[in-house]
Design a protein that fits this description.
By secondary structure, the protein is of the alpha+beta class. The chain folds into two domains: 83 residues, Copper binding periplasmic protein CusF (OB fold (Dihydrolipoamide Acetyltransferase, E2P), Beta Barrel), CATH 2.40.50; 177 residues, Glutaredoxin (3-Layer(aba) Sandwich). A seven-stranded mixed beta sheet has the order 7-6-10-9-8-13-14, with helices on both faces. Strand 1 and strand 2 form a beta hairpin. The longest helix has 17 residues. The N terminus is likely disordered. The structure holds copper (II) ion. The site of copper (II) ion (CU) has 6 residues, from loops. Copper (II) ion binds next to loops.
Amino acid sequence: MASRVWLVLLLAVGLTTACDRPDPPKLYEMTGQILAVKDNGQELTIKHDDIPGYMPGMTMSFPVAASSLMAGRDPGELITATLEVDGLTYRLTAITRTGMAPLPQGTNEVAMAGGILEAGDPMPDAALIDQTDRRRSLSEWRSTPVLVTFIYTRCPLPNYCPLMDRHFVTIQRAVADDAALRGQLQLVSISFDTEYDTPAVLAAHAATLKADTATWTFLTGDRVTVDRLAGRFGVGVIRGADGATEITHNLRTALFAADGTLLKIYPGSDWAPRTVLADLRAHLAR
Ligand SMILES: [Cu+2]
């Protein structure tokens, strides 16, 4: 995902021009913190500061030019590095440790740096709790098609969590009304507001939505578990200071197949319930 963001950014700012004689690679000095060391291949996820004249600070993955540069790399390391940009490719050609610092708290970007689910991946497991205060394992949903999303009940943005709720209401109704789909899809909404969204709050929320809890389950859990799980789905969660009620987050809704593998992720808010229903029908027909 990060590299796609990067590509879009490069195109948007027009750093490359087609047909020109190739320019020599450009070198930029950057500072940041290593959040994750990818065990497969030579890649580091770095939360970096602004790179003057090039890009604002963000968290993204960088390929490393030589395996020798990977020696001794640790999450938490503060570094300076040289970023070499050659057309659309980029890599780190020098890395120097300047210190160590605790990994960021209050966000789950470390979990996200660990790798995001892709189509075909098995549904991750997690120990959670449902709206009736019962302990549940996400793996319980591995034997049926399931649509999973992440929300919090106090979300103030109408086109964020409340929209996901409305979409799930629409899908719940469509599935119930269609003989071919009835009983063929479970819905799971997981709250990352682990402080406020207790089972009782989730039960009240489910009642407000007229959720049929036989097919639509609301889950939450301890913050570390939920944040790690959200990260696996590519949902970034940034909490304010103590007492803040708003949580900064993105939206990712995932459809899993009857064998528990990921069929498709619907990012953001501009997907339509009918798309999910069509994908479900196609999956069931296979
Ligand atoms: Cu929200």
